[in-house]
Structures are given as structure tokens and as C-alpha cells.
Amino acid sequence: MTPVGSEPAIQLDDVVVIRDGRHVLDHVSTSFADGRITAVAGPSGSGKTTLLRLINRLSVPDSGVVRYRGTDVAELDPLALRRQVGMVFQRPTAFPGTVRDNLAAAAADRDGTYTAALKQAALDPEIIDRDTAQLSGGELQRVCLARTLVTEPEALLLDEPTSNVDDDAAEVFESAARSLADGGTTIVWVTHNRAQLERVADDVFDLRRQP
Amino acid sequence: MITWVGLAASVLLVGVAVGVSLLLRLRLERELIVASVRMSIQLALVGGVLALVIDADRSIWWSWLWVAAMVGYASDVAARRAPQVPGLRWLALAAFSVAAVVTMGVLFGLDVFPVDGRTVVPLAGMMVGNSMTATVLAGRRVLEEIGDKRDEVEARLALGQDARTAARPYVRSALRSALTPQIETTKATGLVFLPGAMTGLILAGVDPADAVKVQAVVMFLVLGAAATTTTLVALGAASRLFTPDHRLRLADADPST
After folding, report:
1. Is residue A35 classed as helix, strand or coil in its secondary structure?
2. In this structure, are residues B64 and B70 in contact, taking their beta carbons and an 8 Å threshold?
3. Where are the alpha helices (DSSP H) in chain A?
């Protein structure tokens, strides 16, 4: 999975997650390469979202270790970890108010970080004073991406971010993600869309094929 | 003063309620009679104990003991009325205790009333009784707000916000809902309804101007107490919904994959 010579940014080592008596992740081991887009594939219910949530510690495993840049995430400050490893959720989770209010929830504007983040998310910076209630699903999801980028993360966890938007909006999102990866951001992208996986992924981790 | 005969005569009004129930076949006669008898016995007992507690010759500590018992009982009632709120018994106990210290501190510290069994027990009773509904509502609303807006809360955590910051918008919304009814009641006081304390004083022969002053203080007391108890309960309940490492507890209960 990890190409020879590139250090893994994220590693899962024999991870088990049990919810309501069911093994959502059953002894999963893998690693995600630095500066690449790794697609996490697998059928509904195979634990894709759970796997992402372990990486930024929104959830914790029942056993096994998740490492970020070689350190067990349980030993890292979760707030600092989450600023380094951003996450975009499946459903757009824009907060009430303007786009600026949303960006401000992540961090204060420092020397044009808001403008840079909006551009990286393929949004016109003039959108900043619009109310999120007036935006389309595709725009909302890119506002969520921009909001995540305000903290200048080294890695991004994308949980089927385009499953609720049309094809054109998905394409814009994909090219924004590609530019980020080309700029050195590590991306773990959960998708069940085979065509998207082939378009965006440098590497693929298939949860179905786990022993 | 009401004579025993007068009191007995007022029971006729319960007769009217029972009559209505019989006439319309509401089947509430038994309930009405049980409620009336029970209320009378409870009031007689409380009156008897109060007479002992607030006796001028008795130590004021008996009155404070009574207040402590009221606070304890109120916490138990709050916990039973909203069992879904984690740890509400202890949160409410802390909240009512702090509210008691704050409100009694102002009323007695600033000499609004003299410290006396006759003032301590009724004022503390008003404070606890009238802030109960808002307190329970605050606990319930925090749970509902954070449960309903779970995706938003987690998105805030994922941005690196700490649990308290992530919960703040939802705690604020819960507090607004919990305090609004009390604010509305305060606005309507004197116009839409005459409150019990004032009515009681006027009936007992106190000058209406004095009764109004007492009532105004009671309304301020209730507002201050409700703001204190709801804030403490809302903040406390919200913090219990998160783990020490800033994860939402509700999230792991969900078999989301």
C-alpha cells in the first residue's frame, strides 16, 4: 500500500472497534502515505467512517494503536491533533451565520488565511459575507472544506464529502482536493463511488479485503 | 383572620368541582377529594413544623437546616422529572445550593429583610420552588440541543475546538429556552395575574403598597435564582456529555460506521 521510500503519515496497527457487540473494525492494520490521496473503500457498514474518526480521535479504538507521524494519537493533545488533521463530514455541517462566521469557528484570520482557504476550496472569496442558508449543497461542502483549511492542516479526512452534491459540484471538490494533495497535504478519502475512486486516488485501501 | 367555620365553608368550592365532575362524568371526584385532603394534611404538617422552626425563641440554625432540606428535596424532584439528564441530582443540588447562597446573601447581606426564621424559610422556599421548572427545562434542553445538533458539535470538535467552546452555542440556546418563560411571567406580573405572595399578604391585611414591595423582591429573587440554577445545570449537563479528551459521548453510542 505505502510506496517504497515514503514515510506513512498515518498508521493503524491491529485496530478493533466494537459497537453494540458488533466488530465494526476487526483487527485492521494499514498505513496512509504522506502527501497522497488514499481512498478508503468498502460497502456500507464496513467501518469506513469509524476508521476516519479514529485518526482525529473523535472516537477511540477498543484495542490497537492509531499513529500520526509515528506517535500514538492517544498521547497527543486531541485539540492540536484535530487542527493538524482536518475532517470534512458526509453531510455539510455549516454553522448558522455567514461564511466568515464559519471560518472564524476554526481560527482567527491572519494575513489573508480566509481568502487563501476559500480559494483552495475553489470558492470565490467574495462569498465570505454570504449567509450559509443561501448556499447550494456543493458550496456548503466547500465552505466546510475551507473552514477546515483555515487551521492549515497537514492531513485531511474526507468522509464521502460529495455524496450529497451533484456531479459538477463533486468534480470541483475533487480538483480542489487534488491541488491540496499536490501541495503536500495527506488525504484519506472515504468513498463508495468506484468512478470517483479511480479519478482521485493515488492509493486504495479496501476494508472489504481485510482478513 | 379566617375562622375554622370559614375554612370549612370554603370546602364548598371543592364540592362545586366534584359536582362538575359528576355532572360531566369526568370521573375525577375521587382524585379531587384525595388531592384536597392530601393538600390540607400536608399544609397542616408544614404549618406545624414551620411554627416550631420559625419560633422567635428557637435558634436560626433550625431555619437554615430547613432550607438545606428543601434544597436536597428539590434536587431529588428535579432528577426524577428529567431522569435522562446524566447526573442531574448532583448538578441540581450544587445549583440550588449556590443559588441559595447568592440570593440569601443579597437579601440578608444587604439588609433587604432581617435574618429571621419568618423570612429565611419562606424566601428560600420561593427561590427553590419557583426556579425548579426552569432548572429541569435547562437540563433537558441541553441534552436535546446537543443531541439534535450532534453533527455540528462534532464538526466544531473536529476543528480543534475544546468541548466547552463546541457546546457553547447549544448551551446558550438551551438557557434562552429555559429562562424565557420566567421572563414572560415577570413581564405579565400585575397585569395578567396577581402573584400568590402579594395576594396572600393583602388578604392577611397588609397594606397593598408593602405587599407590592415584597412581591417585587420575590420576583427579583426568582429571576436571579433561575438564572443561577439554569446556568449551572446547563453547563454541568453539557460537560457530562463530553469525555475529558473532548469527544462527544453520544457519538460512540451510535453504531455509525
Report:
1. coil
2. no
3. 48-55, 78-84, 99-106, 113-120, 137-149, 167-182, 194-200
Contact status of A50 with chain B (Cβ, < 8 Å): yes
Q: What is the mean pLDDT of chain A?
A: 92
Look at A82 and B248 and tell me if their CB atoms are within 8 Å.
no
The C-alpha atoms of residue A89 and residue A103 are separated, in whole angstroms, by 16
- How many Å lie between the alpha carbon of B189 and the closest alpha carbon of chain A? 35
Grid cell, residue B178, equals: 429555559
Using DSSP, state whether A58 is helix, strand or coil: coil
Which of B168, B108, B117 is CA-nearest to residue B142?
B168
By the 10 Å C-beta count (0-12 exposed, 13-18 middle, 19+ buried), A15 is classed as buried
Name every chain A residue with its beta carbon within 8 A of the beta carbon of B154.
58, 89, 93
**What's chain B's average pLDDT?**
91
Q: Enumerate the residues of chain B whose CB falls inside 8 A of the CB of residue A87.
A: 155, 158
Enter the DSSP assignment of A9. Answer: E
The shortest C-alpha distance from B160 to chain A (Å) reads 4
SS3 A190: strand
User: What pTM, to 2 d.p., does this model score?
Assistant: 0.86
Give the residues of chain A that fall short of pLDDT 50. Answer: 1-5
- For A210, the 3-state DSSP assignment is coil
Closest CA to B182 of B217, B223, B213: B223
Give the Cα separation of B63 and B52 in Å (integer): 10
For testing the chain B interface, which of A51, A81, A95 should be mutated: the one with the most B CBs within 10 Å?
Answer: A95
Pairing, β A63-68 against β A203-206: unpaired
Q: Which residue's C-alpha cell is 492542516?
A: A153
Q: Do A79 and B151 touch (CB under 8 A)?
A: no
Residue A1 contacts B, CB cutoff 8 Å = no
Q: Do B127 and B222 form a contact (C-beta atoms < 8 A)?
A: yes
Give the strands of the sheet with A203-206, arranged side by side.
A85-88, A155-159, A186-190, A37-41, A203-206
pLDDT tens column, B45-78: 988 988 888 888 888 999 999 999 999 999 999 9
Q: Which of B145, B151, B159 to mutate to test the interface with A (most CBs of A within 10 A)?
A: B159
Query: Which of B155, B246, B257 is opposite residue A79, by nearest beta carbon?
Result: B246
